[in-house]
Write a structure and sequence with these properties.
Largest sheet: 8 strands, mixed
Mean pLDDT: 90
Structural class: alpha/beta
Strand content: 15-25%
Number of strands: 25
Helix content: 25-40%
Shape: globular
Distance between the termini: 26 Å
């Protein structure tokens, strides 16, 4: 592992090149490989390009691209220029991307060719650069890698390195400010969980714009001389299986969805179809054999399979434990860089996220006398500085004595292992670990003229919007049904279009209206936050004295599965 002199991410390419030289660092599966020397040279090229363009220390530079070696080299080039990287999730729609760039004040944005169309609405003063070359996209000059010495820039451990937005809606945008120390303290503390070596090969399948993948799946391997592989498309089975066979990774990070699908669609039916599996005497042996086969499916060399970003189902974890599969569980947030608690393979305890990371303190605030459960609060060098341009929410995120409020409910057992029992915040975790903010979706729904108020909840089908229509809409709807008025009449074109061609019954009229609402709302949302169903809520929602909806009375927002994993980011 390389030793950092100033504890900054900006040092990593040069020190990595000196120690690991021509060892492979970054590859596309089946494509180009870049060595640690290439990593240094090309990240320096990006830094020189930015300095030449007038980017100064502390300026923000956005990054919008699929995972690739160029994403990593560009990000570290931004660090080496003394600037602050603003990674953007590729699923965000153009208006969300524009909001993030405007809110962060980014002066430039690096983009892949595939995503360039999402930047069509950017202000003219934001320079758009190609992520592969570092050049402005409208230049006609020949591509030449600048290979001169990078002027020395005073970058310290407590300077901002990243601003990560977990949402993109204007007015509710929340940019998490992370320093070099935040990321690196978390990365080095993870050595208590996993130590990587030069011989390790990591297959990356999660977005680099998440702290989970960036800290644990990028920084740690690059500090250790390991080799990271990237896919050129989403990790569907048809893509992932050949990649696993080609790469034979020793390390992988995943969301629960991947392993849960494999277990429920393949392993569980196979096991339950075997007579010996139903014999208590043979069952443990059959499960261990299934674990061996699963490990072989993942390339046969797996020694660490980190599952994070969302809760892992209890039955799947129980199988992995009994099967001897080398899975690891932990808990964290974007605001904590991300890991707060965790443990490696062989030390997992069912339904627990593990003990606090080295250097991190965790306490349970105001625990209940019977269950010992309370809000999980934390402090340590990995805890963020605050939210960009949002002093109020930054103050709200911390207690008076300086502990970060996670908004999660849990308890610590007698051995210091953390258990998650629910959520105090309204945020919903998507199936692949994305942060979904109901208030953002509700603000879009409530802007529709026919809607009085709404509430987005999570149920067995995914995200459902409970919608209370305005009284005049319901009255007009009832009158239309009773009078048999043509659907395109005086209710107006919006409702008229919804009603055209539909049987004139209350059920069909309502169903069509609600479906139109769903389609209109989803057209303004990223794929992972789209609603699956809109249901009519016949009366106003019950509210607090300050007129806030009592969310806990609806859906299952406060009834999350036990346990949470490596980072909510």
């Amino acid at each position: 592992m390389i030793t950092l002199k100033h504890f900054t991410l900006a040092e990593m390419p040069e020190l990595g090149s000196a120690k690991f030289g021509n060892w492979p660092a970054l590859s596309m599966v089946g494509g180009t490989t870049f060595s640690y020397r290439d990593f240094e040279r090309l990240s320096r090229h990006i830094a020189l390009q930015l300095r030449k363009a007038g980017i100064q220390k502390g300026d923000r530079v956005a990054l919008l691209s699929e995972n690739s070696p160029h994403w990593v080299m560009t990000c570290f080039g931004i660090f080496r220029a003394g600037a602050i990287a603003v990674p953007i999730l590729t699923d965000f729609i153009p208006s969300q991307i524009r909001n993030i760039i405007e809110h962060s004040g980014a002066k430039a944005v690096f983009v892949s060719e595939r995503l360039r169309s999402k930047l069509a609405e950017l202000p003219a003063d934001v320079e758009i650069r190609d992520i592969k070359t570092g050049r402005p996209v409208n230049t006609t000059a020949p591509y030449v890698i600048e290979d001169t010495v990078l002027p020395e820039i005073d970058i310290t451990a407590d300077d901002l390195a990243l601003i990560i937005y977990t949402s993109g809606t204007t007015g509710l945008s929340k940019g998490v400010m992370l320093t070099h120390r935040n990321i690196l303290s978390d990365a080095t503390a993870c050595r208590d969980i996993i130590i990587l070596h030069r011989t390790d090969r990591l297959l990356s399948i999660l977005p680099l714009a998440h702290t989970y993948e960036f800290t644990i799946g990028t920084v740690i391997p690059l500090l250790s001389g390991s080799h990271i592989f990237y896919l050129d498309r989403p990790p569907a089975a048809a893509v992932l299986i050949p990649a696993l066979k080609a790469v034979r990774p020793t390390i992988m990070l995943s969301v629960p969805l991947v392993i849960e699908k494999i277990y429920r669609s393949s392993i569980k039916p196979t096991l339950e179809g075997m007579k010996l599996y139903h014999n208590p005497l043979f069952r443990p042996l059959i499960i261990r054999f299934a674990g061996f086969k699963l490990k072989k499916t993942f390339g046969g060399r797996m020694r660490f399979f980190g599952i994070g970003g969302a809760p892992l189902s209890a039955d799947v974890e129980e199988f992995l434990k009994k099967a001897g599969f080398p899975y690891a569980i932990g808990y964290g947030l974007t605001e904590t860089s991300p890991l707060l608690a965790g443990c490696g393979p062989g030390h997992t305890h069912l339904r627990s996220t593990g003990p606090a990371l080295r250097g991190v303190e965790i306490r349970i605030a105001d625990p209940r006398p019977d269950t010992k459960e309370g809000e999980i609060q934390a402090r340590g060098p990995n805890v963020f500085k605050g939210y960009w341009k949002d002093e109020q929410r930054t103050r709200e995120a911390f207690t008076e004595d300086g502990w970060f409020r996670t908004g999660d409910l849990g308890y610590l057992d007698e051995k210091g292992r953390l258990y998650i029992r629910g959520r105090l915040k309204s945020m919903i975790l998507g199936a692949s670990g994305e942060n979904i903010y109901p208030e953002e979706i509700e603000s879009i729904i409530n802007a529709i003229p026919e809607v009085a108020e709404s509430l987005v909840v999570e149920d067995e089908n995914g995200l459902t919007a409970l919608v209370c229509l305005k009284s005049e809409v319901l009255e007009n709807l009832e009158a239309r049904i009773q009078d048999g008025i043509d659907a395109a009449g005086d209710l107006g074109s919006r409702i008229g279009r919804a009603f055209s061609g539909v049987e004139k019954s209350a059920e069909h009229l309502l169903e069509n209206m609600l479906e139109n609402i769903r389609k209109e709302v989803n057209s303004k949302l990223a794929a992972f936050s789209r609603i699956q169903k809109v249901k009519l809520h016949p009366e106003p929602f019950e509210k607090t004295p300050t007129q806030k909806i009592k969310r806990f009375l609806y859906g299952r927002n406060s009834q999350q599965k036990d346990g949470k994993n490596l980072g909510k980011s």
